[in-house]
Specification:
Blueprint: H1 7-26, E1 47-55, E2 58-65, E3 70-75, E4 83-89, E5 100-108, E6 111-118, E7 123-129, H2 136-141, E8 145-147, E9 154-158, E10 165-171, E11 176-182, E12 186-190, E13 197-205, E14 208-216
Antiparallel strand pairs: 1-2, 2-3, 3-4, 5-6, 6-7, 8-9, 9-12, 10-11, 10-13, 13-14
């Protein structure tokens, strides 16, 4: 029985039913492709978060997998024929992917970065997406790990392979307060002489020029 109290509810349901019917008539949905966790896509188990990014002429899907503690990168430039590009797992070069849940991308200048929120690590992993045709090896080759931050007496910089790098430390005033040169894959930079505060580290190598902010305790 419809009463004055239930009339608005029925009217709302009626309007929703008509709107849904119109939308269904206008929208044609058909399956295009699907991929699942396995040998080709090893970082999809427990997929929780997904985002897309366009780099050059290609479009990629980046998936955060909670159970696999990693990220799966898929080329979806041709949606009917997706292909695995790279898979990244927690540990070593990527210390903050345990329990990956959410992922997003951001463009800063000419560079594109992926940011992954990791529930179990209580942290965020930041990765630079370096090239439209990047592979897992290329991503690793361009990954730099800088720690600890804040630093007390030493700043550690890790590359995945020996890299000849010239470092220059700038105060926020622009003054040069330190310089060093390293050739190995693991670089130790002395910052014990610096006063407490925020600094800019310039790193020049054959891979290009990068800048990092760090805090001296």
């Amino acid at each position: 029985m419809i009463t004055l109290h239930t009339l608005p509810r029925y009217a709302l349901f009626f309007i929703f039913s008509i709107s849904f019917s119109i939308l269904s008539a206008q929208l044609n949905v058909s399956p295009t492709a699907s991929v699942t966790d396995g040998a080709t896509y090893p970082e999809l188990y427990g997929a929780r978060g997904i985002t897309t990014v366009v780099i050059g002429e290609k479009t990629y899907a980046l998936v955060a997998a909670y159970s696999d503690d990693g990220v799966q990168i898929i080329d979806i430039s041709n949606p009917a024929s997706p292909s695995a590009v790279a898979s990244l797992t927690d540990g070593g070069t990527y210390p903050a992917l345990n329990g990956a849940r959410k992922i997003s991308t951001v463009v800063i200048g000419e560079k594109t970065y992926a940011l992954v929120a990791a529930y179990e690590d209580d942290g965020v992993q930041i990765m630079e997406l370096v090239d439209p045709s990047f592979s897992a090896e290329e991503i690793l080759a361009n990954t730099v790990l800088l720690y600890p931050n804040p630093a007390k007496s030493q700043l550690q910089v890790e590359y995945t392979q020996p890299t000849q790098t010239q470092y220059t430390i700038y105060a926020l005033t622009g003054q040069v307060v330190g310089q060093s040169h390293h050739r190995e894959a693991h670089h130790t930079i002395n910052v014990s002489h610096l006063s407490s505060g925020t600094y800019l580290l310039q790193a020049k190598s054959d891979k290009g020029e990068k800048y990092y902010h760090f805090i001296k305790e």
